[in-house]
Amino acid sequence: MTAALVCLLFAAYLAATNRWFAWQDGVRFLFGQDVNDYLKLAVAAPSIDYSGSDVAFHKIQRFFPNWLTGMSAIMFGTSPERAFAVLCAITATVTVYIWHRIFVLFKLGFVPYFLFMGLLFLNNYFFRYHAIVPGMYQGLFFLLGLSLFYYGLLSGGNTITCAGMIIGILGRQTMLFALPGLWILAFYSIISASEPKKLFLKSIIPASIVTIAALSIYFLTARHARTVGADSQNVAHITAVFAWTATNTIKNGIFNTIIALLDQTFRAFLPVLVPVLVALIVMTKNILNKSVGIKHPEQHFALWLTVVMMSAQPILAGPEITEKSGSRLGSFSLVPAIVSLCILVRDKNLLHGFVMTTSMMVYSCIALCLYSIHHMYTSIGPGTAQGMLACQLGASLIFLFIIFYGSIPVKNRR
Hints:
Number of strands: 0
Largest sheet: none
Number of helices: 21
Strand content: under 5%
Order of helices and strands: HHHHHHHHHHHHHHHHHHHHH
Radius of gyration: 22 Å
Shape: globular
Oligomer: single chain
Structural class: mainly alpha
C-alpha cells in the first residue's frame, strides 16, 4: 500500500508539473523530429516493408514497437497517435511495477525505496518526456526491456533475463551494451565457485543464449533495414566523434573543440550525476576503511561498466549526430546505476542506520522536485538550460546531505 501511494504521488506530481504540448508542438519544440519517422513505421502496419520511406537504418531496426503501435491502432479503431500515448502509459506502468519488484528483492526500507523510486520515476527523460512526446515510444519500450533484464539477473530467472534482452534490443540497439556486464558476472561466478564445473551450466550457457538472442535480433533487423534500401550509420554512432574532432579542430580551434566535447560529456552523464557522486563517495570511503570494504565488487564493476558504455554512446556519436539529445540518450544508464545503489544498501554500505526525520523527509521532497525540473518539459522552475543545471546541481548536493547526514545517529547530529 505504501509503495502504491508513493508511485501515485510521483505520478500526480508529473501530471501537475508537465508542460503539455499538442502532438506536432512536441515534435517541433522538444527535438522529437524522429517521431515523424516512427509514425511512418506505425502507419505502414501490418506491413513491415518500408521501401521508399526515407527512414534511417537504425530507426528501421527499431520497427517492432512502432509496428505494435500501428497494429494496436488498427485493432482498436483509433489513430496511431492515440495508440502511441496509450502504449506509453501501459509500458510505463509495467516498468514501474518491475522496479517495485527489484526493490522488493533487495528488501529496501521506506527511505531507499522512496529515494530510488523517485530518481527513476521523476527522471526527466523517462515518463515526463514520453508523456509529452509519446511518438518516441521505442525509448520506453527499451526501458521496459532493460529493467526486465536486470530483474531477471537479480531474481535468477534466465527466461526473464532473455525476455528483457529481446524486448530491449527490439527497442534500441543500445541494449547490446548490457552484454559485457552480463559476461563479467558469468565468468566471475565460475572463478569464485567452489565447484566451477557445476556452475558452468548455470552461468555460461544462459549468458550464451541471451547473447545469441541479442545478436540474432540485431543482425536480422539490420538485414531487414538493408533490404528496404537504408544505409547503415551504426558504426558512425560510436565513432563519429573522432572525425568530428579532427574537422572541428581545424575549423574552430582546439579550445572550442574541447569545450564542445566537455559539453557533450556533461550532458550525457548529467542524468546519473546523483548516483555517480553517491557511489564514488561511498565506495571510496568503504575501500579506505578496510574493516568495512565493498562486498561484491564484481557486481558493481559490471553495472558501472554498463553505465559508462551507455552514457558514452551519445558522446562517441559526436555533436553533429547527437545534437542536444545527449542527456536523453544517457539517461537510460540510470537503471544499472540504481541497481548498484540497491546492492550497496543491501550490503549495508549505504543508508545503514538511516533515520528519516520530518526535516529529512522535507529535504528529500525538495531534492526530488528540483531533480525533476526541466527548462522545456516542466511548467514550473526556470525556463533556461542554465537554470535547469542549477536545479540538478542543487538536487545532487541535497541528496548527498540527506544520505550521509541522515545516516548519523540522531543523538550525534548537530
